[in-house]
Structure formats: structure tokens, C-alpha cells
Amino acid sequence: MKSLWMITMVASAMLLLVVVVRNGMSFRWLRRFALHLVAAALVLYLLNYSGVVTGFEVPLNPATIGTVVLLGLPGIALVLGLQMTLF
């Protein structure tokens, strides 16, 4: 089953690359996304270990980092609010 998922992931990544190259899109959006991804992970890491928000620790996983990349600062508030509500 893992092989099937890996083949699907590789095939979809290759097809995405073909679409990007074929349409002549620049890789500027990829650099920008990578920068936002690194910045979101860094902000969450600093938030966890700075002690600004006591009693909460936001896990560094793809879901939380993706939420912060997509929403920015409101994403951090959303993650903290969900954690406060659910746990």
C-alpha cells in the first residue's frame, strides 16, 4: 500500500512540474511559498520556546504550518484557539 501512495505522489509531482514548465510560469511563486513556509515554521518554533504564550505548545506539523502559511497571523490565533477549545 505504501508503494501505491509513493507512486501516486511521485506521478502527481511530475505532472505538476510538467504543467508549470509547459505554461511558462516562473518559479517565483515556488520561492515565495518556500519563504512563507520557512517563516511560518520559524514563528511557530519561536512562539513555542519563547514563553510568550504560557500553557500552550503548538506542534510543528504540516497541518499547523500550512494553516499559518495560508492565513498568516490569524492562522496562529486559529491554531491556539482550537487548542484552547479542544484540549
UniProtKB/TrEMBL annotation:
<dbReference type="InterPro" id="IPR010001">
    <property type="entry name" value="BofA"/>
</dbReference>
<feature type="transmembrane region" description="Helical">
    <location>
        <begin position="6"/>
        <end position="21"/>
    </location>
</feature>
<keyword id="KW-0812">Transmembrane</keyword>
<protein>
    <submittedName>
        <fullName>Pro-sigmaK processing inhibitor BofA family protein</fullName>
    </submittedName>
</protein>
<feature type="transmembrane region" description="Helical">
    <location>
        <begin position="63"/>
        <end position="82"/>
    </location>
</feature>
<keyword id="KW-0472">Membrane</keyword>
<dbReference type="Pfam" id="PF07441">
    <property type="entry name" value="BofA"/>
</dbReference>
<keyword id="KW-1133">Transmembrane helix</keyword>
<feature type="transmembrane region" description="Helical">
    <location>
        <begin position="33"/>
        <end position="51"/>
    </location>
</feature>
